[in-house]
Amino acid sequence: SQNDVLARVVVEPPRDAAHGDLSTNAAMVVAKPLGKNPREIATALAGHFGNDPDVVSAEVAGPGFLNLRLDAGVWQKVLASVAAQGADFGRSDVGQGEKVNVEYVSANPTGPMHVGHTRGAVFGDALASLLAYTGYDVTKEYYINDAGSQVDTLARSAFLRYREALGETIEIPVGFYPGDYLVPVGRSLVEEFGNSLLDRPESAWLSPVKQHVLAAMMELIKADLKKLNIEHDVFFSERTLHGPGGDIEETLNWLREKGLVYEGRLEPPKGKLPDDWEDREQTLFRVIQ
Description:
289 residues, alpha/beta, four-stranded antiparallel β-sheet, three-stranded parallel β-sheet, 9 strands
């Protein structure tokens, strides 16, 4: 369709500034549907733009690129628009209020953010701001990965620091979180629970310690995000998806009622069998022909 063809047309500054201010592949994109030579179309476009008072030169390059050099007056008009519109310069309604959820950072809450998380935070926040600036209804979400074995390991690591805060000499096993950032968590566990957790089995202390340390880690992460002036609209807990009454179970029950999922076994992949392949019964989608 015409829209599909036009969607592939790009107008952008060329990589080499010596080629001009703007370059477009338009002639090459429309050449095939029109059954014409790209350079022939580019030449016709050059003639058209050559008569535009805002264009100083229009030159055909390579297989059919069109390079344009703009009159200095164009940039002066842009600067005047910037001065007149201020913070609204570039704002548009192209999004027409369409809802967009931008989920970013979402670092596992097992410790402070590192540089990689920070890069994602800045990129995600800039993207969300641009979408809001162009008329989209944006929600900024942090998906908290607070389910799974890594969070249990975090709780066990924090419990060691709790014992340390009560005067024990501890040794941190391989695979635990050894960071000093859990030392104050150990002290705050003592403030909340005293020594009441010491003689209790893991099944009794794991859940309250997990809740405590996750809250502490999210405070650390939110404090760092605040320093970057980044505020999320939603902090969504993965744990709320799991277990009885969770969204995943509710969804699976609905799918079962509709006959869209079933309990079955997968065939092993063809070729070499992976070392971790498990022949087990699991919930599978039912393909409807």
